[in-house]
Design brief:
The chain is mostly helical and 342 residues long. Among the domains are: 43 residues, Arc Repressor Mutant, subunit A, CATH 1.10.10; 43 residues, Homeodomain-like (Arc Repressor Mutant, subunit A, Orthogonal Bundle), CATH 1.10.10. The chain is built from 14 helices and five strands. The strands form two sheets. Strands 1-4-5 form a three-stranded antiparallel β-sheet. It has a two-stranded antiparallel sheet with strand order 2-3. The longest helix is centred in the last third of the chain and has 17 residues. It is elongated, with a radius of gyration of 23 Å. 34% of the residues are buried. The N terminus and C terminus are likely disordered. The structure holds a DNA duplex (21 and 21 nucleotides).
DNA sequence: AAACATTCCAACCGCAAAGCA
DNA sequence: GTGCTTTGCGGTTGGAATGTT
């Protein structure tokens, strides 16, 4: 016995809405207000499912919808929010006035997602940057609770997300500043995830959702350097996302779907994309060229590849100067964290 | 100009949480 | 506390529009 249908589908119309239907729906809602979607079609005289009416109203008929193409600024916002929130389209849409979750989702899938470039595996480490963004816990399906939609709420949530900014840097050699990005997802270390969660869960933060900067901001984490040290070398599967914001010198690094799936299956429930928005002066041609090289070489011999990027504390020379991250130059460490959280 | 391929997006679907009796 | 209904979410799909051969 199958699931009961959400509404009586027999005799209901499907497919594109006609202008007449739009007018009928709009007039009814203007008169009676939103809500009671189940009974709305019958009351309004529409041969449509209530869900269909709701969707049509939300995505097309509402007066406060913004028409026209997504602007560069909006796109930038989407990229950044997606880096933090993942596919939480409604949440992203809530920060883009006049845009719907469906519109953003479609835009992402058709315009932005294909801009992702992969960095298939270099040898050693993994980089899944552990971070905290102040976002409500993701619910699989289901509507967002009213509590979660309230402003000035406090979340305690772990999300392996970060938006980084670094000082000016020219990316001429793929060996300088970041950890190897290993697309091989075989060794995702689940205990690390739990460990990270435990650390991250220490962080509570009040959030004003009206402020995107605040949403995107990272909470002050105690011992973040320790987390980075323990986490970064073991994270896997990163895909480089070179968005069209090249002109703005933004770059995003994100966890691959495979990694996300892995993490999800580990019981984490949800793993948002990691990202790096590197607001700096990259040599993009080199980046892309390097990406191509790495990709081709990866097909030949993954093990022999050198680290394209490493974190400073993974560098031997650096490490020799500082046996232990916790004992290193405090100023440098603080600077790194400041940059990391900026 | 026709056939085929690709892109884009409106709409559908199932799931799960909130709400309520 | 329980069960049913309503609502919201995100993934997926179908087909129109557009591009390419």
């Amino acid at each position: 016995m199958g699931r009961a249908p959400c509404c009586e589908k027999v005799g209901l119309k499907k497919g594109r809405w006609t202008a007449e239907e739009d007018e009928t729906l709009a007039k009814y809602i203007q008169t009676n207000g939103e809500g009671s979607w189940r009974s709305l079609p019958k009351n309004a005289g529409l041969l449509r499912c209530g869900k269909s009416c709701r969707l049509r109203w939300i995505n097309y008929l509402r007066a406060d919808l913004k028409r026209g193409n997504i602007s560069a600024e909006e796109e930038n916002t989407i990229v950044k929010l997606h880096a933090s929130f993942g596919n939480r389209w409604s949440l992203i849409a809530s920060h883009l006035p006049g845009r719907t979750d469906n519109e953003i989702k479609n835009y992402w899938n058709s315009h932005l997602s294909r801009k992702i470039y992969s960095f298939p595996g270099a040898s050693a480490g993994i980089m899944d940057t552990p971070k905290v963004a102040s976002i409500p816990p993701k619910l699989k399906g289901g509507r967002t609770s009213r509590w979660a939609m309230n402003k000035n709420k406090t979340y305690t949530q772990n999300v392996n997300v970060a938006i980084y900014q670094r000082p000016k840097q020219t990316f001429t050699q793929p060996n300088s500043d970041f950890t190897v990005l290993d697309a091989d997802v075989a060794d995702v270390n689940e205990p690390r995830i739990e460990e990270l969660e435990a650390e991250v869960n220490k962080c509570d933060r009040s959030v004003d959702e009206s402020n995107d900067e605040d949403i995107l901001g990272l909470c002050q984490m105690e011992g973040i350097s320790d987390i980075l040290e323990s986490w970064l070398p073991e994270t896997t599967c990163v895909v480089w996302d070179l968005s069209e914001e090249i002109d703005n010198n933004d770059m995003v690094v994100r966890v691959s779907d495979a990694c996300r799936d892995k993490m999800a299956s580990s019981g984490e429930g949800y793993s948002c994309s990691s990202s790096m928005a590197l607001d700096q002066h990259w040599d993009w041609e080199s980046v892309i060229e390097f990406n191509n090289v790495v990709e081709s070489e990866a097909c030949n011999n993954w093990e022999q590849q050198e680290k394209p990027l490493t974190w400073p504390w993974e560098d031997d020379a650096w490490e020799s100067q500082s046996k232990n991250l916790g004992e290193t130059d405090t100023q440098m460490q603080n600077d790194m964290v400041d940059w990391f959280l900026s």
